[in-house]
Design a protein that fits this description.
2 domains; mainly beta; 0% helix; 301 residues; Leucine-rich repeat, LRR (right-handed beta-alpha superhelix)
Length: 301
């Protein structure tokens, strides 16, 4: 019987424009994929009746403009993929009711203009991908309420000018990707509160001028990527307190004129890339204190 189906894949049904309301009768459905159903414009309200649904993929549904409010009734939903839904302009407030949601992918939703503040209610969320959301200009302050969030991808978020100070409340965050955030000029001092952060990617943040002094509080940070930060003029002296830092990439930091002497305190540093730092005139003598250093790149590009 149809209502016994656990998996339904309609992947690549490029002519599919709508779903029947009877879809809500598939009470046992756990996985539902509509990947690359490029002409699908809306979902029926009855989709909220899929009480067993754990995974919903709408990747590549490029004509989909909005989601029904009933989407918030999917109490079992763990994985929700809206990547490349390029016509999606907003999310319903009810999205915050998805209490089981662990993975939420919104990559390349290029028309998405705003996130509802209710997104902060996603208490189980571990992975949030907002990469390539080029029309999104800011994050709601409620983002700091995502207590289980481990991975936050904001790469290619080209209109983002600043992060809310509440970002520092993400106590479980391990990976923060801000690469390609071309308009980002500074980081909030609260970034230093991210005690679990292991990887911070700021590569090609071409407008970033400085790092906050509080960066020294990132005791778990292992990888710091500043590749292509063209406007970065200096590093805070507090950077020497990053006791777990293994990899520091400053490749192409054209405006960087000097390194703080505290760089020699990075006892775990294994790889230091200074390639293309054309304004850097000399290295501090403390560089010789980097006992764990295995690779030092200095050549011009």
């Amino acid at each position: 019987m149809l209502n016994a189906f656990q998996k339904l894949y309609l992947t690549g049904c490029s002519s599919l424009q709508e779903l029947p309301t009877s879809i809500g009768q598939l009470n046992a459905l756990q996985e539902f994929s509509l990947t690359n159903c490029s002409r699908l414009q809306e979902l029926p309200t009855s989709i909220g009746q899929l009480n067993a649904l754990q995974s919903l993929s709408l990747t590549g549904c490029s004509d989909l403009q909005e989601l029904p409010t009933s989407i918030g009734l999917l109490n079992a939903l763990k994985n929700f993929d809206l990547s490349t839904c390029s016509s999606l302009q907003k999310l319903p407030t009810s999205i915050g009711q998805l209490n089981a949601l662990q993975n939420f992918h919104l990559s390349k939703c290029s028309s998405l203009q705003k996130l509802p503040s209710s997104i902060g209610q996603l208490s189980a969320l571990q992975n949030l991908d907002l990469s390539g959301c080029s029309s999104l200009q800011e994050l709601p302050s409620s983002i700091g309420q995502l207590s289980a969030l481990q991975n936050l991808d904001l790469s290619g978020f080209s209109s983002l000018q600043e992060l809310p100070s509440s970002i520092g409340q993400l106590s479980a965050l391990q990976n923060l990707d801000l690469s390609g955030c071309l308009s980002l000029q500074e980081l909030p001092s609260s970034i230093g509160q991210l005690n679990a952060l292991q990887n911070l990617d700021l590569s090609t943040c071409s407008s970033l001028q400085e790092l906050p002094t509080s960066i020294n509080q990132l005791n778990a940070l292992q990888n710091l990527d500043l590749n292509g930060c063209l406007s970065l003029q200096e590093l805070p002296s507090s950077i020497g307190q990053l006791s777990a830092l293994q990899n520091l990439d400053l490749n192409g930091c054209l405006s960087l004129q000097e390194l703080p002497s505290s760089i020699g305190q990075l006892s775990a540093l294994q790889n230091l890339d200074l390639s293309g730092c054309s304004s850097l005139q000399k290295l501090p003598t403390s560089i010789g204190q980097l006992n764990a250093l295995q690779n030092l790149h200095l050549w011009e590009q």
